[in-house]
Amino acid sequence: MGEDTDATPTLNHRGFLPDHNYVTEADIISTVEFNHTGELLATGDKGGRVVIFQREPESKTEPFSQGEYNVYSTFQSHEPEFDYLKSLEIEEKINKIRWLPQQNAAHFLLSTNDKTIKLWKVSERDKRPEGYNLKDEEGRIKDVSTVTSLQVPVLMPMDLMVEVSPRRVFANAHTYHVNSISVNSDYETYMSADDLRINLWHLDITDRSFNIVDIKPANMEDLTEVITAAEFHPHHCNLFVYSSSKGTLRLCDMREAALCDKHSKLFEEPEDPSARSFFSEIISSVSDVKFSHSGRYLLTRDYLTAKVWDLNMESKPLETYQVHDYLRSKLCSLYENDCIFDKFECAWNGSDSVIMTGAYNNFFRMFDRNTKRDVTLEASRESSKPRAVLKPRRVCAAGGKRRKDDISVDSLDFTKKILHTAWHPNENIIAIAATNNLYIFQDKLNSEMH
Amino acid sequence: MEVNAEARRILAVSISKLYASRTQRGGLRLHRSLLLSLVMRSARDIYHSSRESEGPTPEEPMETSSGAEDEQQQAGLPEPQPALVSSEKLPEEPDSAEEECETTEDKENLSPTRQSRKRRGKASAAPDFLPSKRARLEPGEERYAAPLSSCRAGAGDSLTALSLNRGDWIPLRAEELTYIGQSQDKGITGAMVRAVRST
């Protein structure tokens, strides 16, 4: 790909004590999402908080500080709850954030934990009225007898204040854990998906939702697959896709039936019998699915690969990219240390020419679909000094020929995993969540998409 | 046999994971539990198929539910009991993960005259990969095979049993899983997994 990626300084070091390398669990970032213009970047964490970053407008005087993201607002989205009926604690961890397209001066986003989705309004206040007749500057009621003339209150500028308020709470619609939310292109509805069901909501109505997919078997013992991710088509408001733990994708058309249990298209790659192992089912489970911006392709991620599917071809993926195939022989250890259950996300760039996904050791990978070149980069404090260029990394298989700076499979740090990544909708700016740190990288050489 | 040993180890690890997931914050994860049960099923299948290919050790399928006759048969059986595995020695595995499973002593089954009312399936025993911290049995005393009915909770919606059908020898009840270890009798070792109904 040939791009040099610059690093902006690491943001958001909350909870990271350099001496002890101790990370507060509540600070672990659990979701990252740019808004539709890329001006705002939202992150959610395990403690139920949302932090929104805003891109500074470019200034001609300091060309290098343009485009940096600074904290815009922080708020507590979800709190831990307790389901008394089932004696279960409901985690406050934010599973997903999705922005609504902007329709007025305020910004809206949906955030969800395992059970409840909330719509938040983020608005700015930079003026306030001054010159009331009946109140003084501190708000105390004036003695009427002292008022001798009338004045019209005037709006005066004030320090910018960002206000966040919950506008809707969509609760009690999911028995299982919500894994995805997706806003429809009609800007009126959105869907939420849990392990077995997908519900369709209207953004203005919180006491009702429509169930559009239900794969719960009559007898839970017959359960063979669960829903792992779901997304609406970017342009066709009647189409959506959901992925399953069996590695299949189903495209559904809401015009066909009220309950979309029957898919319109089923995308499935036949299993390679020679690659069968104890863990074949686990590694074929799709952890994320994303439509391309064009709506023509689907990007899926399973444990070892990322695949691009053409909506017109159900029999097999168009392209398969090996993210970290060197782990294939280590699946048993990864099963024992639970890493095999990690759910990696994936992302398209704005022009759908490059895909990106995370891996271990704070590595993340980018694949250029056109040139077929790929690169492995590391998100770490050492490599992210301001204006440093990220150096491509290489993992060599055990016993293989080793170059300087290569890292061997056995020295990979599996506690440093990059599960959540996001790509700016128009520019070559990426956001990488590495445990509790957020890294934002920009490709200065190729800042426009091509 | 390599595959055999690996299958047993994977089964042990899976059971301990399933058990540990009960206490996870946020409740049982359906997806994770499903994947665990799939791994256990393939490990079990591979284990059995590799054992069968090793040589005929006929396991008497105990499909019926009358526990009484099972116990009487056990005394007279020259073959290893269906509840027990073949004469492999239990490896001493200092696997700390598995020791998590050893929560309760199997007090209920200490009496040799206990009539199990639970169905026994084929090869009801989990093989001898589980660690050996069990009460020593008196000579002639037997441990009794695990109940193998797939346990289903009453409340439909919460995750309950992901039981492995067709053989049913490791019932998986997501809520409560304890296991009882091997019995050592005449050099035959075995270990069993027992599902306990939550009270």
Main sheet attributes: strand count, strand direction, barrel closure of chain A: 4 strands, antiparallel
Counted by DSSP, the helix tally of chain B is: 4
Strand count, sense and closure of the main sheet of chain B? Answer: 2 strands, antiparallel
Overall number of strands of chain B: 2
Average pLDDT metric of chain B: 53
| Most extensive interface | A-B, 32 and 32 residues
Strand order of the largest sheet of chain A: 1-32-31-30
As a percent range, the share of helical residues of chain A equals under 10%
Number of strands of chain A: 32
SS summary, helix count of chain A: 2
What is the radius of gyration of chain B computed over CA atoms, rounded to a whole number of angstroms? 16 Å
Averaged pLDDT of chain A: 89
Which oligomerization state do the chains in this entry correspond to? heterodimer
Estimated radius of gyration of chain A: 24 Å
Structural class of chain B: mainly alpha
Strand content of chain A: 35-45%
Weakly predicted, low-confidence segments of chain B: 57-112, 120-126, 145-199
Percent helix of chain B, as a range, is 25-40%
H/E series of chain B: HHHHEE
Keywords (chain A): Repeat, WD repeat
InterPro entries (chain A): PP2A_PR55, PP2A_PR55_CS, WD40/YVTN_repeat-like_dom_sf, WD40_repeat_dom_sf, WD40_rpt
Organism (chain A): Xyrichtys novacula
Family (chain A): Belongs to the phosphatase 2A regulatory subunit B family.
Structure description:
The complex is a heterodimer of chains A (450) and B (199). Chain A is built from two helices and 32 strands. Chain A is an all-beta fold and 450 residues long. In chain A, the strands form nine sheets. In chain A, strands 1-32-31-30 form a four-stranded antiparallel β-sheet, with no helix packed on it. Chain A has a four-stranded antiparallel β-sheet with strand order 2-3-4-5, with no helix packed on it. Chain B is built from four helices and two strands. The chains are: A mainly beta (450), B mainly alpha (199). Chain A: PP2A consists of a common heterodimeric core enzyme, composed of a 36 kDa catalytic subunit (subunit C) and a 65 kDa constant regulatory subunit (PR65 or subunit A), that associates with a variety of regulatory subunits. Chain A: Belongs to the phosphatase 2A regulatory subunit B family. Chain A: GO terms for molecular function: protein phosphatase regulator activity.
